[in-house]
């Protein structure tokens, strides 16, 4: 399966992370205060003030704020569209110091940066590095990153093929209600001789329920 098709299943642009979501995810009152300023400004339509708030929080080390800052630069909100700058903020989000369930980085930032490393549109194409960032994304419990990492390991992109690990990543994504993760869990399990047909169908049924059209016909 071509990676372009996989991306259509796995990747959609994630909007800004809200203040409520960030409440437990930012370490330090200063970062949270700046993040809240940025979020309030964004919700009021003052994108330039939002940029200032998120930029300050990002400098404190908030991965989530860096991600939101990248989103603004990508969409051209409060600033001209600047994909290269946006992508660098996605990278910073992956390397941030915000506290998320005992982890300092923000998984969707790792995934988003890996997507660009894979595509090679605005940064040099680098499958090996993309795979490394996807490993971080999945470890940070980003379901879409787990699906893309699984496909990398199915195809041997950026490293060796590893179907058992690919299946494990798909399972992780399915547990997070990512439709493609459930679909590919069923698909990969179906090739095993010891596969339980009921389990395979359960994966497809969940994927269908989550909106994966191909799963509905499986």
> Considering DSSP H and I runs of 4 or more, what fraction of the residues is helical?
55-70%
Q: Can you summarize the main beta sheet?
A: none
Strand content: under 5%
- Summed over residues and divided by their number, the pLDDT gives a mean of 87
From the 3D coordinates, which CATH architecture of the domain at 1-106 and 119-129 would you assign?
Alpha Horseshoe
Question: Could you give the order of the helices and strands?
Answer: HHHHHHHHHHHHH
Distance between the termini: 17 Å
Structural class: mainly alpha
Cα-based radius of gyration, to the nearest Å:
18 Å
Can you say what the CATH homologous superfamily of the domain at 1-106 and 119-129 is? Tetratricopeptide repeat domain
**CATH fold-level assignment of the domain at 1-106 and 119-129:** Serine Threonine Protein Phosphatase 5, Tetratricopeptide repeat
What overall form do the CA principal axes indicate? Answer: elongated
Strand element count: 0
Question: How many helix segments?
Answer: 13
Low-confidence stretches: 1-13, 20-27, 99-103
Can you identify the CATH class of the domain at 1-106 and 119-129?
A: Mainly Alpha
């Amino acid at each position: 399966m071509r990676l372009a098709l996989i991306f259509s299943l796995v990747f959609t642009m994630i909007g800004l992370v809200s203040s409520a979501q960030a409440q437990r995810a930012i370490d330090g009152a200063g970062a949270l205060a700046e993040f809240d300023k940025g979020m309030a400004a964004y919700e009021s339509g003052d994108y330039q003030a939002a940029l200032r708030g998120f930029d300050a929080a990002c400098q404190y080390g908030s991965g989530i704020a860096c991600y939101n800052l990248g989103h603004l630069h990508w969409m051209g909100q409060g600033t001209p569209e600047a994909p290269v700058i946006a992508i660098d903020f996605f990278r910073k989000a992956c390397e941030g110091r915000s506290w998320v369930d005992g982890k300092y980085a923000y998984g969707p930032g790792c995934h988003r940066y890996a997507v660009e490393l894979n595509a090679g549109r605005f940064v040099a194409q680098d499958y090996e590095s993309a795979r490394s960032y996807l490993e971080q994304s999945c470890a940070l419990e980003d379901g879409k990153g787990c699906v893309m990492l699984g496909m990398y390991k199915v195809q041997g992109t950026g490293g060796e093929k590893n179907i058992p690990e690919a299946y494990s990543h798909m399972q992780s994504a399915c547990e997070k209600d990512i439709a493609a993760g459930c679909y590919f869990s069923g698909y990969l399990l179906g090739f095993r001789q010891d596969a339980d047909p009921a389990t395979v169908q359960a994966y497809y049924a969940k994927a269908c329920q989550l909106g994966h059209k191909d799963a509905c016909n499986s």
